[in-house]
Structure formats: C-alpha cells, structure tokens
Design a protein that fits this description.
Number of helices: 11
Oligomer: single chain
Strand content: 5-15%
CATH architecture of the domain at 150-331: 3-Layer(aba) Sandwich
CATH topology of the domain at 150-331: Aspartate Aminotransferase, domain 2
Number of strands: 9
Radius of gyration: 23 Å
Order of helices and strands: HHHEEHHHHEEHEEEHEHEH
Structural class: alpha/beta
Strand order of the largest sheet: 4-3-5-8-9
Bound molecules: pyridoxal-5'-phosphate
C-alpha cells in the first residue's frame, strides 16, 4: 500500500485515519451513537417537514449507483444519468478508484478538518494546486483563486475586474468609476449579490431583489432550427447587430464598464451556442474599449471533467486568452483528471482577504 500513498502520508497515518472510522475504538461505552439513518422510503417525507422540496422525487442510492447509472433507493429503479447533478459530478458514480483504502484515508483526512486554505497551508492543498495546474493549466493564466460555488466565483472575478478598472480611472483623474458589467440576455451567472444583476432567465429567481442596472445586450446564439446556409446567415446578421450595440454602449460610456462577461454556451438560458467567430469578435473590444479584462466563463456542463478537456475549452475559444477564466462545477468535484481530492473552500471574508492580497497584475 505504501507506494500508492499520496500527500506523502506514512502508512501509520493511513491506518490511524482508517481506524477512526470505527466508532467503537473512540467511544467504547457507546455514548455517541451515529445519527439514526432515515430509511429510503421516508427520505422525501422527512425532508419535506423541514426544507423546501422542489427537486426531483428521486432518492439517490449512493452505494448502488454506478458508472452513469443512478439507482433510486426508494424503488430500486436504475436510470441512465444524463444529468450528473448539473455537471457537478465529474467521473460518474462510485468510480473504483474510491474503493482503494489509501484513497479513502486521504479523503477522510481532508474532510475531517475544514482548513482555511487561504490562511493556513497544508500538504493536501499544495498537492491539489499542483495537480490542478498540471491538468487544467491554461498558460498564461497560471494564477488561481479557489472559491466554493459558481456564483461566488463570478462575484470574485467581477470584483477583480472592478478593482482593476476603478484604479485605472483613479490614476487617470476620472474618479472612482468603472464598476458596471456588460452582459447578455438569457445569461445565468448565479443568484448571489452582484450576479443577481446579470442573471436574467426565470424572473422568479431575480425579482424583488436589489440589482444594478448594468448594460445588457441580446445574445446572438445559433438557431439550430434553421437549416444551413440560413442558420449561419441568420446568426451573422444578429451578431453584427449586437456588435453595433456593444460599440455604441462602449463609445458612450466605456469609462464606467469594467468587463464583459459571457458563458461560451448559455445553459439555463436555453442551451444557446455561440459561434467561435463571435467569441473572437468580442475579444476585439477589449483593448480598444479599455475593458478591464475579458471574462469568459465555462458553464458547468462544459467544465473541466467529462464534457471538456483543456483542448475542449480551446475549441470553445478560437481566440483564447481571456484575462480571467472561471471554471465551475466539474472542477469543484473530485477526480477531474488526476487528483481525487479537492480541498474545501474557505469562508468568504477570508477569501476576500486573500483576493485583496493577491491582486491581479
Ligand atoms: C453558468 C453558471 N454560472 C453560475 C452558476 C452558479 O453556480 P452555483 O449554483 O454553484 O453558485 C451556475 C450554476 O448552475 C452556472 O451554470
């Protein structure tokens, strides 16, 4: 077993961690029994008593589900999974890698202490960052900021862009301006603070919350209902219209706009795909308009795991080099191509301090 150990753990450590799963060793009198498990047939009714249930009425069997088959624990029914928890699950159910004792020990070691990774460093964190860089690195974007959750990832990218633009304006004597974010119709960027001003899919998700009136333009997605060559002709016309609209906005007030944000493929807004040529066009605005940096965001299903590789994201970006790239969902998960460990995120305030310390160049 010793040869396969990660994080340089000694075998004694692994067995100590494994032993800790045996509650009898630490609690001989049985004073702290494990929580009583809710039987599958009562999961929905128990949950319904305390939390809003608007999800699928499926009780996932975490032991019996395998590969891309989800087993419903309450019925035993096996279904083919096209969903993968909106892309959060990179390697399917119960990959055999997780049966290895040393892997289980590592996961427990990492899970049992929620380290504030931005303040206190650890072997698992450094191992993860190294692996992430090796597997997911997209030069020249080699500086990483890890945060838990897609909306908060967007928030932090926006803050970095605002900080960059406002400092630029201050230095030029234009005052503390430059916090607006240009975005697209039908975009979904999350449902937290700033992202509420960008998300515009189902109005129930954003209505009645405080929002900023930031510039929004139509999204020139490809209409696959049209046959070729009408499909391409149609999208080119709309791309030109939107390009013109963006130019007008930037000509009038680029000083106030920090960045432009786009999902290369809109998910919640309708599985809307853009042409690579469109993404390349957007990039041409950056320098000319003094946009802080381009932000492009890879939506969950096109994240780092199964659905896309580094090459995959390259194909999405024929003219790459966004200044900030936000990888979500599948990169939160375990096992995207090498490491089976992803560290916990840290608290927002800590992350903010980390963000403050490591300003983007
Ligand atoms: C494109 C995109 N942005 C942001 C988010 C928000 O992520 P989270 O729910 O983890 O905050 C999602 C989640 O589905 C997403 O698909």
């Amino acid at each position: 077993m010793g040869k396969g150990l990660a994080f340089g753990m000694k075998e004694a450590v692994v067995s100590r961690v494994s032993k800790a799963t045996d509650s009898r060793a630490d609690d001989p009198k049985g004073k702290f029994p494990p929580a009583a498990s809710v039987p599958p047939g009562r999961v929905v009714s128990e949950l319904e008593r305390h939390v809003l249930l608007d999800g699928f009425r499926i009780v996932v069997d975490l032991l019996k589900s395998h590969d891309c088959y989800l087993v419903d624990a309450s019925t035993g029914r096996e279904v083919l999974d096209f969903y993968s928890f909106y892309g959060s699950m990179p390697v399917g159910f119960n990959h055999p890698w997780f049966d290895r004792p040393e892997v289980q020990a590592e996961l427990l070691l990492a899970a049992r202490t929620k380290v504030a990774n931005s303040d206190v460093y650890s072997v698992p964190y450094a191992t993860f960052v190294n692996t992430f860089h090796r597997v997911m690195g997209l030069p020249p974007l080699e500086r990483y900021f890890f945060i838990e959750g897609g909306a908060l990832a967007v928030e932090n990218a926006l803050k970095a862009a605002m900080d960059w633009k406002v400092r630029k304006n201050l230095a030029a004597g234009r005052g503390p301006r430059g916090t607006e974010i240009l975005h697209f119709e039908r975009a979904f960027h999350g449902r937290s603070g700033y992202t509420l001003s960008l998300t515009n899919t189902d109005s129930r998700k954003t209505d009645h919350f405080a929002k900023f009136n930031w510039p929004r333009v139509p999204a020139p997605w490809i209409n696959f209902a049209l046959p070729e060559p009408h499909r391409t002709a149609d999208v080119i016309v709309r791309e030109r219209q939107v390009e013109g609209r963006i130019r007008e906005i930037l000509d009038a007030r680029s000083v106030d706009i920090a960045a432009l944000i786009i999902e290369p493929i809109q998910g919640e807004g309708g599985d809307n795909h853009f042409r690579g040529e469109w993404l390349a066009t957007l990039r041409t605005f950056r320098g000319a308009a003094g946009l802080a940096r381009f932000r492009k965001k890879i939506p969950g299903l096109r994240g780092s795991g199964r659905a896309a590789t580094r090459g995959g994201s390259g194909q999405l970006f024929p003219a790459p080099e966004p200044a900030q790239l936000d990888l979500g969902r599948q990169s939160h998960g375990h096992g995207s191509g090498g490491s089976h460990f992803a560290p916990h995120g840290t608290g927002t305030s800590r992350d903010q301090r980390a963000c403050d310390r490591r300003r983007f160049p």
